[in-house]
Design goal:
Layout: H1 3-11, H2 30-41, E1 48-51, E2 57-61, E3 70-75, E4 90-93, E5 99-100, E6 106-107, E7 122-125, H3 134-152, E8 159-164, H4 172-175, E9 186-191, E10 196-201, E11 203-212, H5 228-238, E12 254-262, E13 266-275, H6 278-299, E14 304-312, H7 316-319, H8 323-335, E15 341-345, H9 350-354, E16 363-365, E17 368-369, E18 377-379, H10 380-394
Helix pairs in contact: 1-3, 3-10, 8-10
This protein binds zinc ion.
Zinc ion is lined by residues 75, 135-136, 167, 190.
C-alpha cells in the first residue's frame, strides 16, 4: 500500500477529540481507527503489542544490527475546531490555481503562500465542509508505510511504534504508559513543512485568576464596594499590553487571557503564559503575583487569588543532552539529499511532555498545512519525502 492509499483510508475514520475522560479516550469513535491500526500491525509480527484503556498503542519490533531502539509517535485523533465526520478528500494536480471548496471557500496562494511550494505536486484537499485530518493521519501513514518497508527487507533496528489518542486536547502524553517504553528517545511525526525539525517548544504555565469582590447596593456603595470586574480589568491592564499573542512572534513570550466570566461579586479569568526561556517565564509569573499582591494590599484582603501551574517545559533542555538524536536526523536528511532547518514551535507537542518523562522527542514534519480547519491540505510529495526520512531513521 502506498502512503497515499493509507492516508485516504485513515482520514475516512472520524476521530474528533472531545472532552477528556478518566476511563477511556474522549471519543469512542477513535477506537475504530485504533482497531484498524492494530489489525495492520499484527501481521507484521511485533514482539509485543499493547493497547491501554485510553486506546494508546505501544508496539515493539525486534531489530537487527547494533543500534538502540527508537520510538515513532503519531496521534489518531483530530482537532474539534472543525468537523472530522465524512471527510471527502480530493486529489489535485496543483499548478498554482485557486481551488474552489464548498460554502464559498477558496484555497488560494494569495491567502496561503505555503501553496507556492506545492506547485507541480499532487495535494489532497477537503471539500470545504470538514477538516482533512492530516494532523496527524499523515504522520500515521508515513510511519506505517516506512515500517512496512523496513520490516519487509529485514533492515530495521529495534523499533517502537506509539499511536496516541487525545493529543488535540493535550491528554496524550500523560496517558502513555511510561513503564512500557523501551526506547531511549523517539520522534513525533506531527509537524507541517517536511524541512522543519523542531527541538524547541514553549515552556508553558496556566494561570487561573479568581477574584472575590464585595457587592453592595450601588446606591450606597461608596467606599465599600469592591467590583470584581473592575479588579479584573485593573489586573489585566497591569500586565504588559504588548506581551499578548496578537503582538508577538518568534522568540517573544506572551500572557494570553482565554476566558473571562464575572459580575461585581466574583470574577474568574483563565490565562496561559508562554515563553521559550525559563528565567523569562519566571519573571513573568513574578510580575503577575506582584500585581495581585499590590491590589490585595490596597483592598486589605485577598480579593485576587492566582493558581499557577506548569503545563510543560521547553523540550530543548532535555534533547540537548542527547546529541545523537539530532545527528541521526541530520544524517537521514543529508543521505536523502533533502534540506532541513531547525524550527521552534510556538506551542507544545507531545514531545514537550514526554521529553521530561524520559522519552526525548523532537518533532518532524508530515507535509500537512492549515491544520484544524477546512483549508487543510497535504502535499503528497512532502509526505513521500518524509517516508524516505523516517525509513532511514528506522534502518539498522
Ligand atoms: Zn498533531
Amino acid at each position: 500500500m502506498t502512503v497515499l492509499e493509507r492516508f485516504l483510508k485513515y482520514v475516512s475514520f472520524e476521530t474528533t477529540a472531545l472532552k477528556e475522560r478518566d476511563d477511556s479516550c474522549s471519543n469512542p469513535l477513535m477506537l475504530n481507527l485504533v482497531d484498524e491500526l492494530v489489525k495492520e500491525l499484527l501481521p507484521l509480527e511485533p514482539e509485543e503489542i499493547s493497547i491501554n484503556k485510553f486506546g494508546i498503542i505501544d508496539c515493539k519490533f525486534k531489530g537487527y544490527g547494533e543500534k538502540n531502539s527508537v520510538a515513532f509517535l503519531a496521534h489518531v485523533d483530530t482537532s474539534n475546531q472543525a468537523s472530522g465526520k465524512d471527510v471527502k478528500p480530493s486529489i489535485i494536480d496543483y499548478e498554482g490555481q485557486d481551488i474552489k471548496l464548498s460554502e464559498g471557500r477558496i484555497l488560494s496562494i494569495k491567502e496561503f503562500p505555503s501553496l507556492k511550494n506545492a506547485i507541480g505536486h499532487k495535494i489532497i484537499v477537503t471539500d470545504g465542509t470538514t477538516l482533512l485530518g492530516g494532523d496527524d493521519k499523515a504522520g500515521i501513514a508515513i510511519i506505517m508505510t516506512s515500517l512496512n518497508k523496513v520490516l519487509k527487507e529485514k533492515n530495521n533496528r529495534p523499533l517502537e511504534i506509539i499511536f496516541t489518542t487525545d493529543e488535540e486536547i493535550g491528554a496524550d502524553a500523560e496517558h502513555v504508559s511510561l513503564r512500557l517504553l523501551s526506547s531511549p528517545y523517539g520522534y513525533t511525526i506531527d509537524g507541517g513543512d517536511y524541512r522543519f525539525i523542531s527541538i524547541e517548544s514553549f515552556t508553558a504555565y496556566s494561570m487561573e485568576v479568581s477574584i472575590q469582590g464585595r457587592s453592595i447596593h450601588p446606591g450606597s456603595a461608596k467606599g465599600k464596594m469592591v467590583n470584581a470586574v473592575s479588579i479584573f480589568t485593573e489586573f489585566h491592564d497591569s500586565l504588559p499590553k504588548f506581551l499578548r499573542p496578537e503582538y508577538t512572534e518568534q522568540r517573544q513570550p506572551f500572557y494570553h487571557v482565554c476566558e473571562v466570566k464575572g459580575c461585581e461579586d466574583t470574577a474568574h479569568a483563565s490565562y496561559i503564559i508562554r515563553s521559550f526561556d525559563e528565567d523569562e517565564i519566571e519573571k513573568m509569573i513574578e510580575l503577575a503575583k506582584f500585581t495581585a499582591m499590590r491590589i490585595n494590599e490596597r483592598e486589605g484582603y485577598e480579593c485576587i487569588h492566582l493558581d499557577i501551574k506548569n503545563q510543560y517545559h521547553n523540550m530543548k533542555r532535555v534533547i540537548d543532552k542527547y546529541p545523537e538524536i539530532m545527528q541521526e536526523v541530520e544524517k537521514a536528511y543529508k543521505e536523502s539529499g533533502l534540506d532541513y532547518e531547525y524550527e521552534m514551535i510556538r506551542g507544545g507537542t507531545t514531545g514537550s511532555q514526554l521529553s521530561f518523562k524520559g522519552l526525548p522527542c523532537p518533532n518532524l514534519g508530515t507535509g500537512d498545512y492549515n491544520c484544524h480547519g477546512q483549508y487543510e491540505y497535504v502535499d503528497l510529495n512532502e509526505m513521500e519525502k518524509m517516508v524516505e526520512i523516517v525509513t532511514k531513521l528506522m534502518e539498522k
